[in-house]
Request: fold
Amino acid sequence: MEFANVDPLVGVIIPTYNCDRFIEQAIESVLQQEGCTYEVIVIDDGSTDSTERILASYTELYGDRFRYIRQKNQGVAAARNHGIAVARADLIAFLDADDYFLPDKLARQAQILTKRPDLGIVHSGWQRVDIQGNKLLDVCPWEQIPELDLENWLRWKPVLPSAMMFRREWLQYVGGFDRRFPPAEDTDLVLKLALNGCKTTWLRQITVCYRQHGESAMHKGLPQARSLCAVT
Reply:
């Protein structure tokens, strides 16, 4: 997609740490999105692999629509908050560096938020894939949770940042991600938003592939459980 000389509608924030084997696929899945303007913000949380070398060409090709920012290692919450702080767009989509978007993700969610100023979040479904990207399972949470109100957020916690789009003003209002709750800082954020009256609706569509491997949140087991208990 060619970047016109207009302010982006969506800011796509990609936090990454030593994810050079997946980062290109993540970025390319954003650059293939059509139907809305966007900026790509990669926050490198102190990677020691070849991430910086791989991403150098993107900065040259896409100018200020692609920003690569390095910071000392502080964790994914700090990386995402850094992205929120520097984003120019009113809408924010997060993409973990080992995940990748499916076509029309940004346009479909942005369209809903543009038409519905009362909403702060649009959520969607996702596909679990293995380390090679082979499909494992389609996840359609709305089949079990048709309404995303405070009660259902607290009960079910169907949180996956890469499947969501947020209104930036809401993220700023609640102070972003809390670094005290890794790896459940995303659940903490959504619960804070819901408690403060932020409304959410579903885009009943699978929009992102969530890669399962040894370093993904799903495999963090006991730390994940302890963190969720601390949040709730």
Summary: The longest helix spans residues 51-62. The mean pLDDT is 92.
